[in-house]
Amino acid sequence: MLLLHGLFGEKDHWTEFSAALTPAHRVVAPDLPGFGDSSRLEGADYRYDAQVARLHAFTRAVGLERFHLAGSSMGGAIAAVYASRHPEQVLSLAFIGAPHGLPTPEPSPVEREIAAGHLPLVVTSHAEFERLVDRMFVRRPFVPGPVLAHLAARAVRDVPGDVRMWHAHRAQGPVVEHLLPHLTVPSFSLWGAEDQVFHVSGAARLQALPGHVGRVLPGVGHLPMMERPRETGEAYRAFLAGPPAPVPQGRRVQEFGAGG
């Protein structure tokens, strides 16, 4: 399976989540070009079309012919574009956390800030980084102080490039919304009920996908694979294990608690 992180994210966001999957699956979680430990080149194109082309070349280079594809936020949008263009490779599509490019009926706190002219996901100080982390989670996972300080320093260092990346990212519009009628592979989603980036009212829109299985997670924010790695990993593994029980019409988006 191939796991794609979100905007300003990195491969390590999937580490604990993958523990439930590696006994039965080969898990590949790259740093997408422009993020994490991958290079970010001045003037390079990091929009979805370019990233999908690079990802397709990557799958060929490492011998991934048929695979399950999952993404978080930006990674969810890239995964949807990839699945629409290369369905012969994609066994299933999963959104682990809300995907970018799917407008929600109700605006989120982050979307209200954007409408007011702010860049809420771009930080210029350690204090702003701390606030951003709190915004991503209801209950943030433990990160050692020195590691958190390193991540904050890297985020502040990358501000000029992040601002350019942010504007290019936002300009791509409702990509996933446009793709909903064209995605035919089996699909799955987990959406945090307390997501401050993309409001949970958008979860029901994924019901337009044929046979979609969706779950809303109470008490979880924007990055469920980090906030509840065991439960979300096991839920995804259960989806991959076989066809789920039929879900009555109008109740495809379901809630599950800490017990999974």
TrEMBL record:
SUPFAM superfamilies: alpha/beta-Hydrolases. GO terms for molecular function: monoacylglycerol lipase activity. GO terms for biological process: acylglycerol catabolic process. InterPro entries: AB_hydrolase_1, AB_hydrolase_fold, AB_hydrolase_sf, Epox_hydrolase-like. One of its GO terms (cellular component) is membrane. The keyword Nucleotide-binding does not apply. The keyword Hydrolase applies. Keywords: Hydrolase. It holds the Pfam family Abhydrolase_1. Residues 1-104 form the AB hydrolase-1 domain. PANTHER family: MONOACYLGLYCEROL LIPASE (PTHR43798), MONOACYLGLYCEROL LIPASE ABHD6 (PTHR43798:SF5). This is Alpha/beta hydrolase.
